[in-house]
Every structure is written in C-alpha cells, then in structure tokens.
Amino acid sequence: MSMIDNIKQLAHQYFDEVISFRRHIHQHPELSFEEHETSNYVCSILDKYDIAYTKGIVKTGIVAIIEGKNPTKKTILLRADLDALPIEEKNNVEYKSQNVGIMHACGHDVHTASVLGTAIILNQLKNEFEGTVKIMFQPGEEVLPGGSSLMIKEGVLQNPKVDVAMAQHVFPSMEVGKVGFREGMYMASTDELHITIIGKGGHAAMAGDYNNPLVVAAHIITEIEKQFPFIIDAEGVARNTQNNIPTVIAFGKIEGKGATNVIPESVYIAGTFRTMDEVWRKEVKLKITEIINTVATKYNTKADINIMDGYPFLTNDAEVTKHCKQAAIDYLGKENVEDLPLRMTAEDFAYITQQVPSCFFRLGTGNKAKGITSGVHTSTFDIDEKALEISTGLMAWMVLKEKTSNLA
Are 160 and 59 in a shared domain? Predict the structure, then answer.
C-alpha cells in the first residue's frame, strides 16, 4: 500500500472518533483565554494516544511533540486554536452548545479536532519520517493581542526551532471536498480604532447651551472616508485610490447615550483599520490621529484616541505553499484544489507567518445540498463533517510531503 493510501485509510479509520472530538468541543465552548476545560480535553486525547505534550502555556495553551527518526533534522509546526465566540447558537443539532451565549461559530472546534486526528495519524507513522512535528493548540485567536503572539513570546517557535508552519481554516463558502491556497500576501493586518469625543451636553432645544459631540463624530467619520478614498477591485478587495494598497477603514459602532431631546456629554465611536503594507499601516494611523484631533479642535471638543495595534498581515511562503498545494492535488485531485483571492479579514497565525516559512490554507466545509451555507461568526454556522476526514488525512500527507522538500 502506498503512503498516501495508508494515510487515507487511517483518516477513515479515525473519522468517527474525530467527529466525536469536534462535537464534544462544540458542545462545551469557552471564550478567549478561558479555554480551561477545552485544554484539559485536548490533553486527555493526547494522553490516550501517548503523545508527549507540555500544557499551561499562556495558561491554556498546549504544545505536543511527535518525534520521527532523526528528530533534529526538520521541525514542522501545526497550529490549532481553542477559543469560541460570544454568540448564542441557533442550530438545532444534538451537539448544540451547552454554554449559553457562547458558540464555536468560527470553526475552532473543527481545527482542534482535525489537528488531533492528524496527530494520531502522524504518531502512528512516526517511524516513516525524519524530523519532528510540533503541534500548537493556542488560546485566544479571536481577541487582541492574540494567543499566537503570546505563545511565540513563550518560545513556541524554539526548542526545537520551527522550520515550517502550517494551519488551516474552515471556509463555508467552499464546498466540502475542496481546499484553497494562495501564495504571498493573503490576509490583512488589523488595528482597532477607539475614539471618544467629549463635548458639552444639554437640552436639545437649547442649541446655544451645548456642543454636540455626535456632530463632531459624524464629521470625523466622513473626513476619514474623504481622506482615504477607495475602489473595489475585480477580486472584491477595497484598494486605496492613491497607491492601490488594499485598505479598509470602517466604523461599526457609535454610542451617544442621549435621547431625542438630550445631547450627551460624549460620544464613543469604534472601527477597524486593515491593510497589507506595514509602512502604509503606520502612515495611516498617524494620519487618522491627525484628522481626529483637527476636527475635534475645530469644533471646540476634545478627543480621546486609542488605536490598538492588532495582528500583522498574513503572508504565505511561496515555496512552502507550492509544496502544500501540490500535496493537496496529489491527495484530493487537481479539480478539488482552488486558488484563493485576497481577503481583508485577519488571523493571528499571521504572527507565525512573519517569522517562519508558512502555509495557511482554507478547508471547504459547506454543502449547499444539505443547507450548510451559513458563514463564520453567525449563530447558524455549521459544517459538513466529512471535511474532518479530508482535513486529518490531508494535513498528515502535507507534513510527510514537506519533510521530503529541500527547505531547512
């Protein structure tokens, strides 16, 4: 039997168990940096299959190690994320979330279960490859500063030093059975904009007695949009018209806490800034600060500005991604491997891609015929669980194929 057929057989053999992993995690979701029970559950699976690990990294993070022959030859990192979102699940399924107001609506239950399945397969095949596989189960992917960045600070990319990293992410708009890749820049950096405008409140009818911060907030939003005009390109990506760099500046929250006849003392606005160029990123944040202060001063108000630095842009190493894509073609057939467009969403695996040659790819989890079409971060998100059999075997095959490449 060929190695690829052996892996497919093992993925099928463990398929039902991997489904049970995913359903257990889905039923017991925990918010970012609070994934204590999820972490304990992952450790119990690693114990069952005698896979060595270290726990308690950034409290709930775990690093498992699978050593093949000649373990110092090359180290490949696989990443999975543990946290869920503050969303009330509306799916009527037997594995529905049992934690009110919390849901695995971004597929991290899938990522964790899948990587556990891959670990089981690779552990069974450890006499068939050289080098080491390091498996990172991280907390807090969904919130700043991102568990990935914190685990890097704790040394996750060292001892042994990571040569190549891989991660996957569910993709509900792609049919199950397919996967997608993109070389180079793929996802955007993300910074949070938190601005409070402090004016003077009063009775709305007494126009001379107040200084309305809502008006100032509105001017700030429109002035920022005016200063950073954009067009939507053929891929659906917003690009700044001045330099063609992918750029999104959008405000999603404005809070005044006034009334029809009450002008509030202050207004809070919050938004996001995303791009794919670090020099431009720095310039834009300085310009946004300048715009806010200028408008606030013009209208005799004060501005409290907090721009929170978020994840860097995610970039896929060309050679690693070529190898992974070819491995996917070998495993699934060329017709099931797609090229991906740029995305302005963000992912904290980007911290790893900035330091290690990496591949971040998409796993098709949708099934239109079964009505499984809801997007991530929605209360009805779900997957076609056939994706779990595909992903566990594919990632194992990708690791073995990468072990034979000339990188590191």
Answer: yes
- Split into its structural domains, the chain has a count of 2
**What are the tens digits of pLDDT across the range 201-236?**
999 999 999 999 999 999 999 999 999 999 999 889
pLDDT in tens, 158-217: 999 999 999 999 999 999 999 999 999 999 999 999 999 999 999 999 999 999 999 999
Alpha-carbon distance of 365 to 363, in angstroms, equals 6
Whole-model pTM over 0.90: yes
Distance of CA 30 to the CA centre of its chain: 16
Q: Judge if 326 and 397 occupy the same domain.
A: yes
Q: Are residues 319 and 285 in the same domain?
A: no
Closest to 127 measured CA to CA, from 64, 73, 72, 66: 66
Boundary of a domain, candidates 274, 308, 342: 308
Please indicate, yes or no, if residue 408 is contained in any of the structural domains.
no
Cis peptide preceding 341, ω within 30 of 0:
no
Phi, psi of 234, rounded to the nearest 5 degrees: -65, -25
* CA 130 to mean position of chain CA atoms: 30
